Amino acid sequence: MAQYSLERLRPEYERLWAQMTVLKTQAAAAQARKVIASKARYLEVERRTGVPWFVVGCLHMRESSGNFNTYLGNGQPLNRVTTIVPKGRGPWKSFEDGAEDALAIDRLDQVKTWNAARVAYAMEAFNGFGYRSPSRNIPSPYLWGGTNIQKPGKFVRDGVYDSKVMDPQIGGMAVLKLIMELDRTAKFSAPAPKQRAAPPADDNIPTPSPKAEDGDLMVLPLAKSKTMWGNTMQWLSGAGATVMAALAGVPWQVWVALAVLIAVGALLVYKGRIDVQKVVRHLSQDDTADEVV
Known about the structure:
Layout: H1 6-19, H2 25-37, H3 39-49, H4 53-64, H5 95-105, H6 116-127, H7 141-144, E1 154-157, E2 160-162, H8 172-182, H9 210-217, H10 226-246, H11 252-270, H12 276-283
Antiparallel strand pairs: 1-2
Helix pairs in contact: 1-6, 2-4, 2-8, 3-4, 3-5, 4-8
């Protein structure tokens, strides 16, 4: 039901888990040690279903105090068909076979990530959401029995609720906490790693279209670059005027030396491959036909 969805109940589970203090520590620790002692069998169930061994153990303790001759789904004997919810299951050859069936009924074998909230939700769904009815509205003792979260009220049998009874059983979350304290391998699964997002695009770097890119890459041959020569001649003219103004009154020998230096520099830059007459002739022509439209 939508009102009992994981996403809606998650904040409550996380808050209660953070606030929980185990009051019946000796009883909870005894159950935790019993689960750890049978870890190999619970690991086999984990191998088949993906449900963490310690979660299977907590459910098993709550349903039948860890009796391996019982069906995980409701604590009835393995060697006969179940008569209470879930009805009509079995018989089973082994606890592991029955556990595999019971966990599949609630689709717990499809859960990928296990954390405190997901374990609490799995446990409550496994037992039922009847404690959330407006006429009851208490934290399920199936989870929180034996802790500071527990309040009076218990289903003494299927469909029969007594608001005055304090459930004497230890809740699954209390046993879980003690298991995690006693066995370091009992850990929640890490969330699936987030995919690394692609670096954000830099809006200041334009993405050129193919035509623009082609145009940017097209370099005209030196002999046909009218714009380059025009800019070069304009720069030389300005530079010459500046030099003449600065060297006014300088002896003619200095001018000769400057002229020689300019000639040598030009020769070095163009490696003697520039035909001045062709350049002058080119500059006097209109090369519009060579432009890329």
